[in-house]
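=== RUN LOG ===
request id: a7f3
mode: sequence -> structure
chains: 1
length: 257
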Amino acid sequence: MKKHAAITTESGRYFLTDRIREEVNFWTTEQSQGLHPPPAQKPVPTGSRTVPLPDRAEWSIPPCDLQAAIAGRESHREFAKESLSLDELAFLLWACQGVRKQLHEAAVLRTVPSAGCRHPFETYLAVNRVEGLENGVIYRYLPLDNSLVVERTVEKLPVLLTAATRGQAFTGQAAVTFLWTAIPARTEWRYAEASYKVIALDAGHLCQNLYLACEAIGAGTCAIAAYNQQLVDELLGVDGDEEFVTYIAPVGKINRI
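=== RESULT ===
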């Protein structure tokens, strides 16, 4: 893994501004050079096992009032032992990264906004209690195919997930933990050095949709940005440079008082 310079208060605040856009020569981006963009979805390795997800027309998801969902949204760190149904998981995945329309191979309209329609994220799932899926397995969402691909089986997944999130035990106690990785090259293709702030903003869009969707199914989540980067990247089997975890959100049913 590459070593990087330490962030200072000055550089951190600079990151939050948009001054970098004045310094980028957009005529030299990969897009301007006519280079092909990275694919909108990571390829599925040959021989991998996939699990189809139910289509929207098949879901048994109750209607949810948006005002009530926004008013009721809060972070939850305690979950019931109840499992999620496959319908419910499919709904949550659709809410945060579902496809509305594919324009071409590398441009996809989704249920969340993304700078330049670049959508730099992949969604991984550490599954403990989801009907129809194996416990202790890490899956990856394939939004273009509405399915999951089995990435790896992990012995003692809850224990390793807790360790990777710096002892936050509720990550290993959730029915399923969402782990989003960024593939910066998707956004860099268009925005070069101006990519990184908008990638961070994009992450907020997808996790807020997850919060609101949880309200519709009697579930809860808690967004996590504190984790051990090396451990969590190793857990998913990503390289930590071209793809790395940026956001985590455990999900489970909750007991409302």
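=== NOTES ===
The chain has a mean pLDDT of 94.
Strands lie at 50-52, 99-104, 107-110, 121-127, 137-142, 147-153, 176-182, 219-221, 244-253.
=== END ===
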